[in-house]
């Protein structure tokens, strides 16, 4: 072996040790085990898949929050409206049983029912996220016009276009409830606003009030069913939120295990590599110290 070959071999070894030291120092500086794909092709692939899953998880978390807010608003609005409808029912029964009531008292009942009808109409036009809560996928600003006529999308006889929120890779949850679904089919003439209007108009006619009371009970039952449906979907949304949170934690753990260094292990490896580099420097110095004169003695 020539002196040149010994020098090249020694320098290659030094470069290899120095590169290893530099790689470990870079890992300590960045806190990451992967700075380029060639560092760990398998780990890079795992990291890319995990990052993609985390992006989807974050979007699904936003969808869940949006859905929870919309369902919570629907739930509270329906509960408030049911309370008002029950008050209308109480007033209707009072009018039916008030045989000794004079026109003034019945007029007061009619006024109260009319006021409750206006309050119910305002609640039915509640806006959430820039669109009417009970209007379906309408582009309009209201679900019911001032006369209580439904102007949203989905008329109760044909399927409504559901507003869905994707909460996982395999599940979507509906977050809307249309007016006809909650308050009755407007084409039947016996939806909430038609019935309440009829009660206010016929407060002096016990025969008609009997029919209105039966219709009001049907509307109230329909609203209770809609409220139960909203509650069920809200519960599903809460479960999805917990699953999403658990998945996020799992993905973060996998990402950390794939990309982040083990600090104690990396420091120990760097120390060992530096010791090896110092030993290689010492050995190389001894191997390259003889000159041509030493061989001519």
Overview of this protein structure:
With 297 residues, the protein is mostly helical. It has a domain at 81-243: f41 fragment of flagellin, N-terminal domain, CATH 1.20.1330. It has helices at 3-30, 41-97, 103-124, 179-183, 192-201, 206-259, 263-288, 292-296; strands spanning 127-128, 131-132, 164-166, 172-174. A two-stranded antiparallel sheet has the order 1-2. A two-stranded antiparallel sheet has the order 3-4. Helix 1 packs antiparallel against helix 7 (263-288). The two termini are 19 Å apart.
Looking at this protein, list some descriptive labels:
two-stranded antiparallel ribbon, mainly alpha, f41 fragment of flagellin, N-terminal domain, 297 residues, 3% strand
- Give helix and strand order, one letter per element, not per position: HHHEEEEHHHHH
Rg calc: 38 Å
Structural class computed from helices and strand pairing: mainly alpha
Strand order of the largest sheet: 1-2
Could you state the CATH homologous superfamily of the domain at 81-243? Answer: f41 fragment of flagellin, N-terminal domain
Number of extended strands: 4
Tell me the CATH architecture of the domain at 81-243: Up-down Bundle
The proportion of strand residues reads under 5%
> Rough shape?
rod-shaped
Proportion of helical residues = 55-70%
Distance between the termini: 19 Å
